[in-house]
Design goal:
- There is one protein chain.
- By secondary structure, the protein is α/β, with parallel strands linked by helices.
- It has a domain of 240 residues: Rossmann fold (3-Layer(aba) Sandwich).
- The chain contains 12 helices and 17 strands.
- The strands form 4 sheets. It has a 10-stranded mixed sheet with strand order 3-2-1-4-5-6-10-15-14-16, with helices on both faces. A 3-stranded mixed sheet has the order 7-9-11. Strands 8-12 form a two-stranded parallel ribbon.
């Protein structure tokens, strides 16, 4: 796979996000791309990222917004591959400002497609979210529309020289806004660690593994599919207990001193995560590390051969959600966290707040 990227010019949007940043790093360090162009609208984070990767003369970093179609068209000139990771990802922020989510997560994807078509980019990979499955909020709905736009773009192509596809995965543990930095900060302060519901489950993956599979899907994509990464499952309650056991002594406490406080499930929050629903199983293929959901409608102008190496089954019957998958044991989860260095503080970012606010919950309201 490394040889596939060796002579490729690659563009990454959302380069300063958790996934985008790791994607840029791996493409430069592990895959030896010919050229890498990184785009983001966060000036400070982009400056820091460029400083950290300044030893790579084949990389360049530009302020850009995916709402700016003309800028995207200019930056995609002569690119072979585009990884589109830029998005609004916080559920509550999108719920409060839905049209902003539409402009970035839907119209922004449309701009990416337009610019890629204009420049005849070989492959475009869109990073989606588990929240796109049976969406219950604006953010999930906007990500689902992003997937559908990518599939439609591929279906309307008249030749096989360009490929548009999507990847979908669950929680990237340790990312900004995820539960690990929140639990860590709560433990640092001596508790309590706030838990929504003891039976809540989530798919989990390290950012390194998530990005590796995103890169691999580029090589596998035939066009219009959604690649769903297979992921281990954890109980949120087990995560809280393991983190208390591991981190309480680090911050000068005995684990028994840290209280776990149940606060209840929030409006719009799911008890489990879905990565593939029942309807999608009818057109899904199982690979060694993925499920692949094929387009519901065949392309208008060409026939695509959806055959893949390491295919395990072309008959998938069960939806893929965290409620029916076997969760990791506490010891397995502990090993996962330690092996992926997820208990270590990420000094790259600011110290995380100790809780997440939901609408109408701010103190004083």
């Amino acid at each position: 796979m490394r040889s596939y990227f060796k002579d490729k010019r690659v563009l990454v949007t959302g380069a300063c996000g958790t996934v985008g940043r790791e994607l840029v790093r791996q493409l430069l360090e592990n895959y030896g791309v010919s050229e890498l162009v990184a785009l983001d609208n966060n000036e400070t984070e982009l400056f820091i990222l460029e400083e950290r990767l300044s030893s790579y003369s084949n990389s360049s970093f530009f302020l850009a917004d995916i709402r700016d179609r003309d800028k995207l068209c200019r930056k995609m000139q002569h690119m072979h591959i585009v990884f589109h990771t830029a998005a609004f990802k916080h559920v509550i922020m999108c719920e409060r400002s839905p049209f902003e989510a539409v402009q970035t997560n839907i119209l922004g994807v449309n701009n990416i497609i337009y610019a890629a078509l204009e420049n005849k980019v070989e492959r475009v990979i869109f990073t989606s979210s588990d929240k796109a499955v049976n969406p219950t909020n604006v953010m999930g709905t906007s990500k689902l529309m992003g997937e559908r736009l990518m599939t439609a773009a591929n279906g309307n192509l008249r030749d096989g020289r360009q490929i548009f596809a999507s990847t979908r995965f669950g929680n990237v543990l340790g990312s900004r806004g995820s539960v690990i930095p929140i639990f860590r900060e709560q433990i640092r302060r001596g508790g309590p660690v706030t838990l929504t519901d003891p039976s809540m489950t989530r798919f989990i993956m390290s950012v390194q593994e998530a990005v590796r599979l995103v890169i691999e899907s580029t090589f596998l994509a035939r066009g219009g599919e959604v690649f769903i990464t297979k992921m281990p499952v954890m109980r949120i309650q087990d995560l809280a207990k393991v983190m208390i056991e591991e981190l309480a002594p680090v911050y000068g406490y005995h684990p028994d001193e840290i209280e776990i406080k149940l606060i209840g499930v929030k409006a719009g929050e799911k008890m489990y995560e879905e990565l593939m629903n029942h309807e999608e199983t009818r057109r899904a293929v199982e690979l060694e590390r993925y499920f692949v959901v094929l387009p519901a409608f065949t392309g208008l102008y060409r026939k695509i051969d959806y055959s893949y190496p390491t295919t395990l089954s072309t008959h998938v019957t069960n939806p893929y959600n965290s409620a029916i998958e076997k969760p990791l044991s506490a010891d397995e989860l502990r090993h996962f966290l330690v092996e992926n260095k997820l208990l270590e503080e990420d000094l790259y970012t600011y110290r995380h707040p100790a809780r997440r606010y939901w609408p109408n919950e701010k103190e004083g309201q």
